[in-house]
Amino acid sequence: MIKAIMFDLDNTLIDFVRMKKLSCEAAIDAMIDNGLKISKKKALKIMFDLYNKYGWEYQRIFQLFMKKVIKKIDYRIMCSGIVAYRKIKEGLLYPYPNVSSTLDRLKKKGYKLVILTDAPRIQAWIRLAAMGIQNKFDYVITFDDTRKKKIDEKPFLFALKKLKLKPEEVIMVGDSIKRDLKIPKKLGITTVLAKYGQLEKEKGKVDYEINDISELLKIVKKL
Ligand SMILES: [Mg+2]
Known about the structure:
Layout: E1 4-7, H1 16-33, H2 40-54, H3 61-70, H4 75-92, H5 99-108, E2 112-116, H6 121-131, E3 139-141, H7 143-146, H8 154-163, E4 170-174, H9 177-187, E5 190-194, E6 208-210, H10 216-222
Parallel strand pairs: 1-2, 1-4, 2-3, 4-5, 5-6
């Protein structure tokens, strides 16, 4: 019997890539307005290549971007970009459709709800608060709790211990097979792929696939 549902955060509850893309576009527009000589298209590609290489949480992307484009850091241009990025980002952190209502309905049915994210603790809580869903979870487990990402067993074992539950009593929902679901599947946790947030085609088996978070309500009914 399922007693708890664990959620990845970025691209599972938050439309993170959309936020990132629009924020980067605003940053690049601002840097070009302030004298950076590059086409917007090329700049976007460089920035996303850097994020792919160093990770979405990397905090020095703008410095690397400047060095790559003009071989030095021009603070006037760079900070124009950072400010534009932050302004857009703050306003754009919102959940996918039906996230809030689905969480409420699951909670009402008595399921424990958990965030299990590779993001640092402060970033995770800022994102939850920005979306107004910071009060809906029994536990928010982040990278800071185990210093391991979900490609490792540790975060899952830590979560099971906190919940005092067995793997077969828990569901994990995530947008990446490799980064969210491969390990829990191996541990005997029921895995649900959030197809709407998936960035790339991946190989590997999961127990369920959903195109909208509300489909979880049907899945828990069956289990
Ligand atoms: Mg994710």
